[in-house]
Specification:
- With about 750 residues, this protein is α+β, with helices and mostly antiparallel strands.
- About 65% of the residues lie in helices and about 10% in strands.
- The chain has a five-stranded antiparallel β-sheet, sandwiched between helices.
- Helix 7 runs parallel beside helix 9, helix 9 runs antiparallel to helix 23 and helix 10 runs antiparallel to helix 18.
- The radius of gyration is 30 Å and the shape is elongated.
- The relative contact order is 0.12.
């Protein structure tokens, strides 16, 4: 018998996306195939830097030094070991001279210098068995990386009496990029099968389980194509690919979970396929749209920062969120239209279901209903204990120390990391940790000498070399006492910049980059937080019509992040669990990472918050019973939010298996935040707070109520003409409420 559309239950969007489902899916298949082609090799076009602010003084100084004094900014280091002999042994010196001469003749390589040419103590290890040949490979990161790939094999290894290892900043970045690509492939191979198993457990049906996975794959491949296009216009960090995989799978699965679950519920309630899709899109589909907007806004806030490392995550995040939502709202309904009741096919849990209707998960819902009633009966206790626990978990973040990313992000066995370890531990004066002071403008030798003497007199200065002069430029190398990027070195940067001179001066170096990065983030952070908070408040108000729920959502989401930030400091800064997790603690956190983790985790928290609140609002519009609506919302979304959080956490943990510390921190930190939000905040804090607030939760002043009635959107049907007395009318909502009360023992 043909299905008959119900005009009041099937809208124009449903008719559009279900009119020609086979054509829609075929078009999606073609577009996805084109995306695979367009996004191929995107990782090779990405960069592994981006932590520096492009408009900062340190960035300008570095660029001038690279142009005027290439030897002052070497990015390639050859560590030459002489075995048991001295580096001054004639045979060793002769071989080192041949290597240096050969390197000088390489196309694209300049500024070559070595210990054997300069006899500089900084280029010779303290035990006299290792020394350095330094050079600069010209060009941008991609071009320089290609030159490194070409020449490195010819120098790496044994050459007569010496052993050569390749290192330096360029080698570190290049090896980090390669490691991230390998780790990402491994993470995908881990996450995809585990995710499929979890989806089968959640849905029972193998057919239903494949749908969210398909949506995620479409989102990931589409985002890679988008990023490939963006790399033609600007720099994009290779780290952004990790976010593409994590959010592509995580959010697409979240959105598909809620849509497929709602569709199966409507089928189980007796609706035909198209009507079930219509109800699903008007309820769960509308919530998915709001959720995608809130997550996209959280990620878009990173666009206000000048560092392309952060901006790259905004590019990737916005693209993958919007593509995941589009696939869930366009392709998924088309697939459901073709499948209809067959979405429940290959039910792998039928032996355990014992006659229950597939997809409804009645027992699980009853458990959440009982749990929500328990929480609301002791609301003050649960609210206080949960809040105090979350705050205590976040206390370690008060001791956070910010630093810069270096070679110790790589595993201890990486060649470029080994070279830097040897230099850091065995060479005098922490080579590479110095500060360069650029002098611009005409000056006499006496003025240069006088300025050098004043630099030497500054507190925290260990040594000053130079000046090295050029055509209208000169530079000094200042070696700070203590840690290269410690607080003393950062204070010295300010002193160097404040020191008066008869010419223009500017400062760069690791500590200067850190000072400028911290200043850029501090300057833009209020704008980013403001954008996230204001837009979140507006979107949640449009969804709920309440003034207090948006404020509650922002505060509770922020609380859900405390455990993540506390763990980041306790584990990655302080080094706890470093052996178990296989990373090297540097005693600080890279400056941009907390910003990135806040934006991503806040958006994901809002994702789950919107799903719960929208279902509560849907029932409150039908019944007007505040406490029952909270129980109803938790009953119908608690298990699904938890399942979605576990699946997303699995994906993030897979990302967290990376051998690069920042990626490990990002994956494991966000996995913890997601689980805390779903299992603690949504399960305990939200029902407790809503119980304490009572019906005032839904309050809004009259002008805003009128605004919401005209422009707002919410799940479910409009409130009946009878107002909030709809709960007295028999129907699906009343039956659900009765079942809730029976199940909860209320």
């Amino acid at each position: 018998m043909p299905e008959v559309d119900s005009p009041e239950r099937v809208g124009r969007w449903t008719r559009l996306v279900t009119a020609r489902p086979r054509l829609a899916l075929l078009a999606a298949l073609v577009i996805t195939a084109l995306a695979v082609f367009a996004g191929g090799g995107v990782a090779d076009r990405m960069s592994s830097g981006g932590w520096e602010a492009p408009d900062a003084e340190s960035t300008y100084t570095t660029q001038v030094l690279e142009r005027e004094f290439p030897a002052s900014q070497p990015n390639l280091l050859l560590l030459i070991g002489s075995g048991g002999a001295s580096v001054d042994d004639p045979a060793v010196a002769a071989e080192a001279a041949r290597i240096t001469e050969r390197l000088s003749a390489e196309p694209g390589v300049g500024g070559v210098g070595s210990y054997w040419q300069t006899k500089s103590p900084a280029l010779r290890s303290e035990d006299g068995r290792e020394a350095i040949v330094a050079a600069r490979i010209a060009g941008d990161e991609k071009a320089a990386g290609e030159i490194l790939d070409r020449i490195a094999p010819a120098y790496r290894g044994t050459h007569g009496p010496v052993e050569v290892s390749v290192g330096g900043p360029l080698a570190v970045r290049h090896e980090m990029q390669t490691t991230i690509q390998e780790d990402l492939l491994r993470a995908e191979l881990i996450a995809l099968p585990v995710t499929l198993v979890l989806l089968v457990v959640v849905f029972g049906s193998a057919i239903a389980a494949l749908l969210p996975l398909g949506v995620g794959i479409v989102a990931i491949l589409g985002t890679n194509a988008v990023l490939r296009g963006i790399t033609e216009l600007t720099d994009v960090s290779v780290f952004a690919q990790n976010l593409t995989t994590a959010l592509g799978l995580g959010l697409a699965i979240d959105y598909a979970l809620f849509i497929v679950r709602r569709f199966r519920e409507e089928l189980a309630a007796g609706a035909d396929t198209r009507t079930a899709i219509g109800i699903t899109l008007r309820t769960a589909g509308r919530t998915v749209l709001f959720s995608a907007l809130t997550v996209a806004v959280s990620l878009a806030a990173m666009m206000v920062f000048p560092q392309y490392f952060l901006r790259s995550f905004a590019y990737a995040g916005i693209a993958v969120v919007l593509l995941a939502a589009a696939a869930a709202l366009i392709l998924l309904p088309a697939a459901l239209m073709l499948l209809g009741p067959r979405v429940n096919s290959l039910d792998l849990r039928r032996l355990l279901r014992r006659g229950r209707t597939p997809g409804v998960a009645e027992d699980s819902g009853r458990g959440w209903a009982r749990f929500s009633v328990l929480v609301m009966r002791r609301a003050p206790v649960f609210a206080l204990l949960t809040t105090v626990t979350l705050v205590l978990l976040g206390l370690p973040f008060l001791g956070v120390k910010f630093g810069t990313a270096d070679d110790r992000q790589l595993p201890a066995t990486a060649e470029s990391r080994v070279v830097q370890d040897h230099i850091r531990d065995g060479f005098p004066g922490s080579p590479g940790g110095g500060l360069d002071v650029l002098a611009e403008g005409p000056a006499s030798p006496g003025q240069y000498a006088d300025f050098r003497d004043r630099l030497r007199a500054l507190p925290g200065v260990q040594r000053v070399d130079g000046p090295v002069t050029g055509d209208g430029f000169a530079y000094y190398e200042v070696l700070p006492a203590g840690e290269p990027v410690g607080q003393r070195a950062q204070d010295l940067v300010q002193d160097l910049r404040a020191e008066p001179a008869p010419f223009d001066t500017s400062v760069t170096g690791a500590a200067a980059v850190l000072v400028d990065s911290k200043a850029a983030i501090a300057d833009r952070l209020p704008w980013a937080v403001g954008i996230i908070v204001v837009v979140t408040l507006l979107l949640v108000f449009l969804l709920t019509g309440s003034v207090l729920i948006p404020l509650q959502a922002v505060v509770l989401n922020a609380l859900s992040l405390t455990a993540m930030f506390g763990a980041v400091v306790w584990v990655f800064q302080d080094g706890n669990l470093s052996g178990l997790l296989a990373f090297t603690s540097t005693g600080d956190i890279e400056t941009t990472l907390p910003v990135l983790m806040f934006c991503v985790a806040f958006g994901l928290s809002m994702d789950y918050g919107v799903f719960l609140i929208s279902r509560i609002k849907e029932e409150y519009d039908r019944s007007g019973d505040h406490e029952h609506s909270v129980t109803y919302g938790l009953r119908h979304t608690g298990g699904l939010i938890t399942a979605a959080a576990v699946i997303l956490a699995v994906v993030m943990v897979a990302i967290g298996t990376s051998r690069v510390t920042n990626t490990k921190m990002l994956g494991l930190g966000i996995a913890l935040a997601v689980l805390m939000d779903a299992m603690v905040v949504r399960s305990l804090l939200v029902p407790a707070v809503m119980k304490l607030m009572g019906r005032v939760t839904w309050w809004a002043p009259a002008p805003l109520r009128a605004f919401h009635q005209r422009f707002g959107l919410s799940e479910g049907e409009a409130v009946p003409a009878g107002g909030r007395d709809a709960e007295k009318t028999p129907g699906a909502g009343g039956r659900d409420r009765d079942r809730d009360k029976i199940a909860a023992g209320a």
